[in-house]
Amino acid sequence: MKIFDLFVDEQVKDSPVVADVQYRLGITGRVISDPGQVFQVVSQAIDPIQKGKEILYLTRNKGAFIRECPGTRSYTCCGYKILHIGTFCTMDCSYCILQAYFHPPLLQFFVNHEDMICELTQEFSKPAISRIGTGEFTDSMIWEYGTDLSSLLVPLFGAQTRAVLELKTKTTDIQRLKYLSHNRKTICAWSLNTERVIREQERHTTSLNARLRAAKTCESWGYPLAFHFDPVVLYEGCEEEYRQVIQKLFAQVSADNIVWISIGTFRFIPELKSIIQNRFSDSTLVYGEFITGLDGKMRYFKPLRLNFYQKLVSWIREMAPNVRVYFCMEDDEIWEKTIGFTPEKYGGLSRMLDLSAEEHCGLFV
Q1: pTM of this prediction?
Q2: Which residues lie closer than 8 Å to 61 by C-beta, 6 or more apart?
Q3: Topology of the domain comprising 62-361
């Protein structure tokens, strides 16, 4: 995390979490009474998106910490729950929807952890399995340098049996995880892609090999693992390169320790196209064969998606016949023609993933 400036909401200036972040970053920052002050600094920059990655705003989460994943009725959703710890990211992926999602985009970290713990405690008491992740509105692990978040969350989840925490990242900032009492209730997860996509579209992220080495290390510390091929990018020569990624993955980690693997092709809201063109002028990402999907997002032409999914799933099955593979935001036709069934056959996708979490993480209610 490379933070050049720090702003502190006046309402939280005396928070011990704020003091801890200031100490870790070596920045006292400026106390402000109006968030519009920091928003103005970001908005007036030549590249507000880049500026928003360099400024951290410490404030309260004034809404719910635990939220439902913003899926759509048109495609199958996994029933994932979001733990809303903060916003935006220090890395810079061309395809990132957060560039268009926040106005203005800004790194925020929510410091009212007592409220977060209260919500989690209530969630743990529910008579159902909960799959909760911190990687929807930010990367789960970029906060390791400046905060003590993992040291708070991992033991908290480790002390209960009804929920699992997924930490999804493109970093290798895992050192602190080694000594935490996780009790296999935290899943260490990585977004994976080909070296070409990482090099051309994922600025300031770690290499594929580095991510896989980090996964292997976390496995040695007893953590269950997950992987996300999302977004899959279609380009000439991509099939062989994605096959190589699969081979490298299973050469590093045990298939039996993988809770799930998700797959989804590149899709984007129309507003993101001009942002990618302006900020990543050399990228050809948005010039593929796209159509408007049922959710209003631009998606690869369905026969292209289907053809690639069938190959990718077959490569995974060759290496790991029993690993749970699922699609992120696809319809029943894709499931039937690729996996051979629809999630409803097994009680729905949420139930399928709950069962996998129960098996690998020791959950029970």
Answers
A1: 0.97
A2: 84, 110, 112, 115, 116
A3: pyruvate-formate lyase- activating enzyme (3.80.30)
